[in-house]
Amino acid sequence: MTQHPRNAAKETRLTAGTPILFVDRVSKTFPGVIALDDVSLNVRAGEVNALVGENGAGKSTLIKLMSGNYTPDGGEITVGGHRLEATPADAHRAGIATIHQESHLVPNMTVAENIMLGHWPARYGIINGREQMRVARAAIARVAPDLSADTLAHRLSPAEGQLVEIARAISENSRVLIMDEPTTSLSGREIDQLFAVVRELKAQGMGIVFVSHWLEEVFAIADRVTVLRDGRLIGSEPAAALDPGKVIQMMVGRGVAQVTTSAHPLGDTVLKVSNLTRTGVVDDVSLAVRAGEIVTLAGLVGAGRTELANCIFGVDPYEAGVVEMAGQRLRPGNPRAAIDAGIGLVPEDRRNQALITNLSVSTNATLAVLDQIAPHGVLSAKREAEALAVATQSVKVKMASADVPISTLSGGNQQKVVLGRWLARNPKLLILDEPTKGIDIGSKAEINEIIVRLAREGTAILLISSEMPEVLSLSDRVLVMRSGRIVGEIKRENLSAEVVIALATSG
Amino acid sequence: MMGQKTHAEQPESARTEGNSRVLDAIQSLGLLGVILIGGLLLSFASPVFFSRINIENLLFASTIIAVVAMGQAFVILVAGIDLAVGAVLALASVLGVVLATKAGLPVGLAALLALAAGTGIGLINGLAVTVLRLPALIATLAMMSITRGVAYLISDGRNIAPVPSVYVDIQGSRLFGVPMVIILTVLLGVLAHFVLTRTRFGREIYATGGNAVAARLAGIRTNRVIVIAYMISGFAAALGGLMITARLEAGAATAGFGYELTVISAVVIGGVSLFGGEGRIMGVLLGVILLGLVQNAVNLLNVPPNYDYVVSGAVIAAAATLDVYRRRLVESGLRRRTMTIRREKAQSRDAAQTRDAAQSAPPTRTGQT
């Protein structure tokens, strides 16, 4: 077997502070969005580099580039002088191990088999169980001495699973360990245990990239903090030279708080939610939205905002609480009832939850008004054309023809069609879940204008947004969610990015 | 092959508009082309092929499969599958005769009850898939076994003859010289096409099969749509059962054995995606005719009957391969198009950014080097 050239770099023992992995002016574009723009950073031996930034700042994209899952559009990533090919296998060979947010263990294999996954010690294709056990045990001993190598992976807790993935990285002699939000599913004690392991690996010269939303954790473990915003590198400084306030300022940027809506008269209460609880995701939430009001749910991904929207719209059932539209109680778990009561939902995941991708723009745009365009069940071409006009003209969709499959439109135009689908119904309440996610800047501005216009015309808007400028410029009122609860209400006059982020990330 | 050519000749028009139309045309034309070429070759090999009587026989023999396949198409369009159709066909065949001759019901009522039984089995299948959330394959496999068993129980495994004369009369009747059965099948085809393309329910079928989550969020009662699709399939299979009774002049619990696979093959060859949401009735009918053509060829060319299954299987594999190939072509076409749009976007954005940069100071960057 010939040795991979990069293994040479892997095996030399590096002294602390030596850069191992170089990200050099890397850019990455997706349809309609620039995810990363000219970003450079180094991962150094014996250093924990914490990567922070708001949702959509480009952290995940950067990680996927470093772990070989994406090809950069510009720039390059080098390890020990060799350019990283965009395959996970090459990243492994180069000594880069990644612990993703979701588990990458094979559930029905043992801990030992998982640690040696894909490089089981074998001769003539027959696995040497004893050797496998020896190598696996040696790796486990360094991260979780109490864990049995015979345990099946699906019996492990999330924390144990993570430690097994770290053990795998050790057994592969990895020099760089990337951890994408490793603490989200861990308890306080488990986090301490994880941090102890991370410090140990650091002491042995491993370079560690650590992603977290929680600044407390960042300052507990990081030697260096790297901040991304809107796909750009804002700064990469020693943690000792920073404090949480400074990092928040770097994440938010200056001068973004342009307020575009002005105070306007509000109407009656349209939506009233009382004590809504769905075990494990939404915890005793009460809120109200008035006609013409834009209420924004802010918070981190996973704070329960989408889940709350799904309960209100009847997508998911809930155990306790009441949702009322104009005083009428809504039947839980029934989207049709919500729609009939005048609610429209633009879901977060456009492709999987909103679009029928192989069908035409016209069919997609009129999907929510089938009852109106098909009297007696037979489609009326005239009514369909009218509904299409209402749906697409008010949002100015750019398209060659309404008969093309919707998948051929840009993200921004697709989103306008999804929004227009509801406008054709003239809804009383629109729930917009990250309506500008993954679309280009021009369309973002247009969609924001439409939202403001709808509110002016009296539509109640419940907005979920992780984009700080949007939260600041559109909201009449902001409700901050954390762990399924509403932890703060900020009126428009007190609104600032610092307040929102502080409420969303602390505690 | 044919599909590839058409596509390559029209990259510009495909890029600018009517992608789905072009695709549809490729799909139908591709299959129609295969059928025509196959027919032409056959007519050289056997002078009998283009005779009126042979063509009529071919179509006549295809009618039962065509009716059952159109029902199956509704189920596959909502991303389901119905393996019970062959057994439902047998049960309806038995019921239609037993209820009339043994129970003494009027023939028409007996036939209606047989159809209702098939529809009811479809209802059970649909509820099993939606309410119980069983995988369609398992639910309908179980139902296939149960239904076939009930057909055997009722008939005690024997053919039930004679059948009421109405069956034989309809089977033999002609309109304008064309067998009534063929005309009825064509009318059903027109009806199914109308329902799928021109009604609210048809839209709901395509939306549910294309993306059930999105359809539900748009207010479509997807579970109900799925249940009705299975009921249509059950009804069509039962109708096929009455047709086979007329053809065999007996109620037969053994009828339609293995039909589910033939029917599913025809639907898939006809361009209906097994993932749901894509396909047309015209394609399904062409798929049925192609299978009928193969059977006809086997008969005309005196291929030993033992080769039957091998030949049919080979044709199915070839058609499916052609279909995958076509899809890949279409996908790469769409990707190219998206790339172009993306590039244009990026260019206009760069221009906008250059403008912005000229107006304001560039953001500070403190990247390490």
Q: Can you offer a commentary on this structure?
A:
Chain A is of the alpha/beta class and 507 residues long. In chain A, 34% of the residues lie in helices and 25% in strands. A six-stranded mixed beta sheet of chain A has the order 6-9-10-3-11-12, with helices on both faces. In chain A, strands 18-19-20-15-21-22 form a six-stranded mixed beta sheet, with helices on both faces. A four-stranded antiparallel beta sheet of chain A has the order 2-1-4-5. In chain A, strand 4 and strand 5 form a beta hairpin. With 369 residues, chain B is mostly helical. Chain B has one domain (19-332): ABC transporter involved in vitamin B12 uptake, BtuC. Chain B is built from 15 helices and two strands. Chain B has helices spanning 2-9, 11-16, 19-45, 52-77, 85-101, 107-130, 136-155, 165-172, 180-198, 200-210, 212-217, 222-248, 259-269, 281-300, 308-359; strands at residues 174-175, 178-179. The longest helix of chain B has 52 residues, at 308-359. The N and C termini of chain B lie far apart (55 Å). In chain B, 44% of the residues are buried. Chains A and B meet through strand 2, strand 12, helix 11, helix 12 and helix 14 of A and helix 3, helix 10, helix 11 and helix 15 of B.
- Based on the coordinates given, report the CATH architecture of chain B: Orthogonal Bundle
DSSP helical segment count of chain B: 15
CATH topology of chain B: ABC transporter involved in vitamin B12 uptake, BtuC
What is the number of strand segments of chain B?
A: 2
Amount of beta strand of chain B:
under 5%
Tally of strands of chain A: 22
CATH class designation of chain B = Mainly Alpha
The number of distinct structural domains of chain A comes to: 3
Uncertain runs of chain B: 1-19, 360-369
What CATH calls the topology of the largest domain in chain A is: Rossmann fold
What value does the Rg of chain B take, in angstroms?
A: 25 Å
Oligomer: heterodimer
Shape descriptor of chain B reads globular
Mean pLDDT of chain B: 83
> Helical proportion of chain A?
25-40%
